[in-house]
Write a structure and sequence with these properties.
seven-stranded mixed sheet, 23 strands, six-stranded mixed sheet, Aldehyde Dehydrogenase, Chain A, domain 1
């Protein structure tokens, strides 16, 4: 178990203090008070992590796939056993409700399990014909970077896929939410993962990413976070031609057609949107509603959003907790303030809630001019804009107007419109008549400024594999 809320680095199978600068304080978003700390890695610590990963690479790559899978499945069981403590720690760091934190850990467990149980088929050679076979070999050391919004699920998606592929990982998890990575490293170690295969570091994000990517031993960069940071890391990765999987920001449209069940659409949108106080890369952020049902939709949405119980994450009655950090409060003030100054209407919310902690009222905006910052930047908070449309062509143009292309949502019973929207919307994932997030067994990747590469499913494991073509003059027996 972690030492209270003072988290260390995990390098070569050992927990240690960082030899970088002083530890970083953890702040509870529910009351803005410090409650713990996280160690800071120096360049020397990172070199030790690189050496540990290099030292374990052959052993792990040569470990039979079913044994790698068995370790992941055992780690899933250990995580599941610790879910209450791990979720409590996550909720305290991040601000999401305890129920949300437990749900997130359950998805992390499922991710370890899915990759573990499918280990053999995910790594098996694929024969093209009797003389040609493709081998799925580990790509090498992975440098993985995860953010603070969904640390359990996002750590699990990177760790499980890389490990099943046979790659060692150096994970830099977000300093604001270190515990999920700590629980995972402990579970993997207890499950029998050899020392050095997973290393967990924290510290100065820019220093760590530059140091790790400067090593040609690192072969894959896997990053989830903002578009500007992803772009910067891709430039560093270009030096050593490291493969990049970049899961970046989103600005996801929902298109509600006139035949949709408006009450169901409103409750599905609001339930998904306000989870984690709206700080999700694929949360909906812009709603386009057919004009005949626009007013009814806005009235219902405003009523639902206005009644969301915002409060302490550990109160079972709470439906939405605080935002994760003061930077998000500043972003809400800036983005909503800008929209209002250009003529947007605040239908509900629009302001910080006056109590200690980083609480923001669920906000619905209408009449938002298209050049407002909130329609061009990723909002990443509990705010939705709503606008009417008259024709399907107009809805498609508006939905695709963003530079981002991560997720999109459509509400209609018409199969013809569903098919048309599935082809027309530029997004990595489309959900129809419900809102669905990532799952362990399916690929998700962004388009445009939302990044490239895939996480989840078979494709997520392929991100960490080299495909080696073996040709032979006569039939070969590799498969
Ligand atoms: P940020 O962009 O500086 O950081 C985002 C994440 O990237 C953090 O976890 C941070 O530790 C990490 N990071 C930052 N600089 C890095 C670097 N040079 N090398 C490696 N990692 C680095 O700012 P922030 O305030 O934490 O988040 C702001 C924005 O990030 C949000 O508005 C949102 O748009 C985006 N974001 C996206 C996701 C996502 O899931 N796509 C998750 C979190 C944040």
């Amino acid at each position: 178990m972690p030492d209270g809320s003072n988290y260390k680095l995990f390098i070569d199978g050992t927990w240690r203090s960082g030899t970088g600068t002083a530890d970083i304080a953890l702040i509870n978003p529910a009351n803005a008070k410090p409650f713990g700390s996280v160690a800071v890695a120096s360049a020397g610590d990172l070199d030790d992590a690189l050496n540990a990963a290099r030292g374990s690479a052959t052993l792990w790559a040569d470990t039979p796939a079913h044994e790698r899978g068995a370790i992941l499945v055992r780690a899933a069981g250990i995580l599941a056993r610790n879910i209450d403590t791990a979720a409590t720690a996550l909720s305290q760091e991040q601000g999401k409700t305890l129920a949300e934190a437990k749900g997130e850990f359950a998805r992390a467990v499922e991710t370890f399990e899915w990759n573990g149980r499918h280990a053999e088929e995910l790594t098996a050679p694929a024969s093209i014909d009797e003389k040609r076979t493709v081998l799925h070999e580990p790509a090498g050391i992975v440098a993985a970077f995860t953010p603070w919004n969904y640390p359990a699920v996002l750590n699990a998606r990177k760790l499980a896929a890389a490990l099943v592929a046979g790659c060692p990982v150096i994970l830099k998890a977000a300093e604001e939410t270190p515990s999920a990575g700590v629980y995972m490293a402990e579970a993997l170690q207890e499950a029998g993962l050899p020392a050095g295969v997973v290393n967990l570091v924290f510290g100065n994000p820019a220093m760590i990413s530059e140091h790790l990517l400067a090593s040609p031993s690192v072969r894959v960069l896997s990053f989830t976070g903002s578009t500007p940071v992803g772009r910067r890391l891709a430039k560093h990765a270009a030096e050593n031609l490291q493969r990049c999987v970049l899961e970046l920001g989103g600005h996801s449209p929902v298109v509600v057609f006139a035949d949709a069940d408006i009450s169901k659409a409103v409750s599905a949108i609001s339930e998904y949107k306000f989870e984690c106080a709206g700080q999700s890369c694929n949360a909906p952020s812009r709603i386009l509603v057919a004009r005949p049902v626009y007013e009814d939709f806005v009235d219902k949405l405003v009523e639902v959003a206005g009644n969301i119980k915002v409060g302490r994450p550990d109160d079972p009655a709470t439906e939405m907790g605080p935002m994760a950090n003061p930077r998000r409060i500043e972003a809400m003030e800036r983005l909503i303030g800008d929209a209002v100054s250009r003529g947007a209407q605040v239908k509900t919310g629009g302001a910080r809630i006056d109590q200690p902690g980083f609480y923001w009222a669920p906000t619905i905006l209408t009449e938002v001019p298209s050049d407002s910052l909130i329609l061009t930047e990723e909002p990443f908070g509990p705010v939705l804009t709503v606008a009417p449309f008259d024709t399907i062509e107009e809805a498609i143009t508006e939905a695709n107007a963003s530079d981002f292309g991560l997720a999109a949502y459509v509400f209609t019973h018409s199969h013809e419109i569903q098919r048309r929207m599935a082809r027309a919307l530029s997004a990595g994932a489309l959900s129809i008549n419900y809102l669905k997030g990532v799952s362990a067994d399916a690929p998700l990747g962004g388009l445009k400024q939302s990044g490239y590469g895939y996480e989840g499913g078979v494709e997520g494991v392929r991100s960490f594999q080299n495909l080696k073509l073996v040709n032979s003059a006569s039939p070969i027996g590799i498969a």
